[in-house]
Each structure stands twice: as structure tokens, then as C-alpha cells.
Specification:
Blueprint: E1 2-6, H1 10-22, E2 27-32, H2 36-43, E3 49-51, H3 54-59, E4 65-68, H4 76-84, E5 89-91, H5 99-112, E6 116-118, H6 126-140, E7 167-173, H7 187-192, H8 199-210, E8 214-222, E9 226-233, E10 238-244, E11 254-260, E12 263-268, E13 272-276, E14 284-286, E15 289-290, H9 302-320, E16 330-331, H10 335-346, H11 356-375, E17 379-380
Parallel strand pairs: 1-2, 1-4, 2-3, 4-5, 5-6, 7-10
Antiparallel strand pairs: 7-11, 8-9, 8-17, 9-10, 11-12, 12-13, 13-14, 15-16
Helix pairs in contact: 4-5, 5-11, 8-11
Length: 390
């Protein structure tokens, strides 16, 4: 399947284009970018064609599908042109820079009927997929553990909510010095940091895990670096997302803990899935790492193995004076798998990997979080409309 990549910056160079090259039944056909340097770097992957005009890339008869990796402020016209040409689109997140644009894109996609996928790739990460399946299966049919401590009288206690109500905690350890200027260049990002551009990843992850309608959002924080988002759901569940931009890449970036019905599922940086209180679930499952330059270090895998490999990579970075050398043995965040699944979706072999409606909802919740942060109050998700100004 011939793909055009529109927007050949760092993310495309490090992820989308190498993934296209690696997938047996995909072809990196056309590179499109307005930046000469980006086109030059993309040309190293030997596309059949390069262009600065996205309309030319879409009109190319041999191009069958698009990957859109431009900034969110310039995705709608590309998606609209692709839809008019009847060509499927995989777009990076966030879907759009405003809720009005997100809804407009949803209308374009649904009316055209093109296969469409938004790059909330955690949905395709092997560890996250397993963790979500274990947790949702447990919530649907919990099996009490015979060793659970039950204090006499618990049956008559008033707890104010269902004992099975799920709680999700997601912690992000990020380092703001790694952020690109584009992350903070528009008016909203300068005021609320990455609540939209990165927050959509983790809001979508929470929505997917809990499988319920988000009702209200409360967000607090400090400047543009650190925020805590609390989402309440229609079924009584809640998610707490802690986004810290003052951390270090020397430690795992992501930790997810899903709690409910007397059980817990923990996904650590997509390296390990741990469980407790869930009948039949493995206590610990470790997942393979990508681009491991140190196979003889940390051979046990999992979190401890990754930390050992990370220390070795950081030492290499110091000696070589190349900070990019620290990135080795990275977790599988699902980028390539999501693209493979999207190709299956295009061929009619599966349902949508990440539908446009899910991305619109994540955008709406993130904008509610931004409004909550700026106004210092709880915001109902329904308050975010196409006319909302933040």
C-alpha cells in the first residue's frame, strides 16, 4: 500500500517513515513538507517522490493513503483534500487545535466514509492492550480472592458509591528541555502547556480503559510544566492524570494503575504489566524492548532490565557527547502496530483502530481541563462547544 507522508519533521523521521519502510506490505511513496531540510532527511529513506505541495501528494495516482504529521493547526485542509479524493488518513494527535476544527474534521470523515485513524498509539501498545483487556474482563466478571481481608460488618457499610467503581491513575514523568518550540508556540500552549498536545494521549487512554462517558473535569497546576487532571465519568469512575514536565528521561516516563472490584492492574512504561487480586491473571508479564543496543545488560528484562540498559545508554551519551545516545531499548508504544492495524482497517479486515469520535472526545475533555485550569473551577465536558473561547 503506497503512503504519502505529509509533514516530515522529527516524529515522521523517527517513527512513521521507518515504520513504513519496515512494514512488508507498505511503501513510503511520497514525502511532502514545506521545509527543505525535512524533505532532504526524508529523501534518505528513498521515497519515489518528494513535493512541497500536499495537494500534489494527494493527487498522485499511485498514493493510496496518507500519514499526516503536520502541526495540529494545519491538519483540517489536508484531511479535507484527502477525503475529497477518497483516500484514507492516519493523522497524528491531537486531532485539531480547536474543538470547532475537531468537529469539522469529524463531519468531513464521517460524510466521506474514508478509513481514518488518529495516532493515540497507546491503544496499540502490546502491554497496554493486555492491561486494558485484563482490567475490563475483571470488572465485568470479578472473582473475589479467597485471601481478601473482610472486616466484620462490611456488608452494612455505606460507602457512597459502588464498590466496583474503577479508579485510574496515570503518571507522566517528562523533561521539558526535550520539548520542541512548536509545543509552546500558539496562544493556548503558552498558557496551559501540553494539556492539549500531550494531554490527549492520556485522556484518550483513560477513556479507553474506563469505557464510560467523561462528565466533568477539574485541573490544577503550575505554569506550563506541571498539571493534574481529574476526570469524573458517568458510571462513577474517575481518572487522575499527573503530567510533570520537571522530570528525567533516566526513569520510565509512564505509569498506569487501574483499580476496581478488589483488584489492580499496573502498566509500567509499557515494559511490565503487574496484577494483584485478579483471578487467573499473571502476577508479572514483561514485554520486549525496541532497538536494544545492550542485549547483554539487564537480561532479566522488565523495569529493572530497562533501568540497567538506560544507565549504560546514558553513559554512552556522556562519552560521545551525543544526548540522543541515551535512547536505546525503548518500550513498544504501539506506533508500528497501530499503522499495521490501520492497513488492515483500510482493507476491511477490522474495525476502526482509533475512531475520529474518540479523538474528538479526548480533545473536548482536554479543552475542558484547560478551561478548568485557567478559571480555577470544575468544568462540565458539555460546556466545551464550537463557540467556546479558552
Amino acid at each position: 500500500m503506497n503512503f504519502a507522508v505529509v509533514g516530515c519533521g522529527m516524529l515522521a523521521q523517527q517513527s512513521h517513515i521507518p515504520n513504513l519502510v519496515a512494514i512488508e506490505d507498505a511503501c513510503f511513496h511520497t514525502a511532502c513538507d514545506i521545509n527543505e531540510d525535512n524533505l532532504r532527511k526524508a529523501a534518505a529513506f528513498h521515497p519515489k517522490k518528494t513535493t512541497k505541495d500536499f495537494r500534489e501528494a494527494i493527487a498522485e495516482p499511485e498514493v493510496e493513503a496518507l500519514i499526516v504529521a503536520t502541526t495540529e493547526a494545519f491538519r483540517r485542509p489536508i484531511i479535507e483534500a484527502a477525503a475529497q479524493a477518497g483516500k484514507p488518513v492516519y493523522t497524528e494527535k491531537p486531532l485539531a487545535d480547536t474543538f470547532a476544527n475537531a468537529l469539522a474534521i469529524q463531519k468531513i470523515v464521517e460524510e466521506s466514509g474514508i478509513p481514518f485513524c488518529v495516532g493515540h498509539n497507546r491503544r496499540a501498545a502490546p502491554a497496554m492492550r493486555d492491561a486494558q483487556k485484563i482490567f475490563t474482563t475483571h470488572l465485568k466478571a470479578p472473582q473475589p480472592q479467597p485471601w481478601r481481608f473482610e472486616r466484620p460488618g462490611w456488608e452494612t457499610m455505606e460507602v457512597g458509591s459502588s464498590p466496583g467503581t474503577p479508579v485510574l491513575a496515570i503518571r507522566i514523568n517528562d523533561d521539558w528541555k526535550s520539548w520542541k518550540p512548536v509545543h509552546l508556540q500558539n496562544d493556548l500552549n503558552r498558557r496551559v502547556g501540553l494539556l492539549l498536545s500531550e494531554g490527549t494521549h492520556f485522556v484518550d487512554l483513560a477513556n479507553w480503559f474506563l469505557g464510560a462517558e467523561p462528565v466533568s473535569v477539574l485541573c490544577t497546576g503550575q505554569g506550563v510544566l506541571n498539571h493534574v487532571i481529574v476526570i469524573h465519568y458517568a458510571h462513577g469512575g474517575m481518572a487522575v492524570i499527573t503530567m510533570a514536565g520537571t522530570g528525567t528521561f533516566g526513569y520510565p516516563k509512564e505509569l498506569l494503575e487501574a483499580i476496581g472490584e478488589g483488584g489492580i492492574v499496573v502498566c509500567e512504561h509499557m515494559l511490565e504489566v503487574r496484577t494483584a487480586g485478579i483471578a487467573g491473571a499473571a502476577a508479572l508479564t514483561c514485554y520486549p524492548m525496541l532497538h536494544d543496543r545492550h542485549p547483554d545488560i539487564g537480561v532479566e528484562g522488565g523495569l529493572s532490565g530497562w533501568l540497567a540498559k538506560k544507565r549504560a545508554a546514558c553513559e554512552e551519551a556522556v562519552v560521545s557527547r551525543d544526548s540522543l545516545r541515551q535512547f536505546a531499548a525503548e518500550p513498544d508504544k504501539g506506533h508500528q502496530r497501530m499503522l499495521r492495524e490501520f492497513i488492515r482497517e483500510i482493507r476491511g479486515e477490522r474495525k476502526s483502530v482509533c475512531p475520529v469520535s474518540a479523538a474528538v472526545l479526548a480533545t473536548q475533555v482536554c479543552l475542558a481541563a484547560a478551561k478548568s485550569y485557567l478559571e480555577g473551577r470544575k468544568v462540565d465536558v458539555a460546556e466545551i462547544t464550537p463557540e467556546t473561547k479558552i
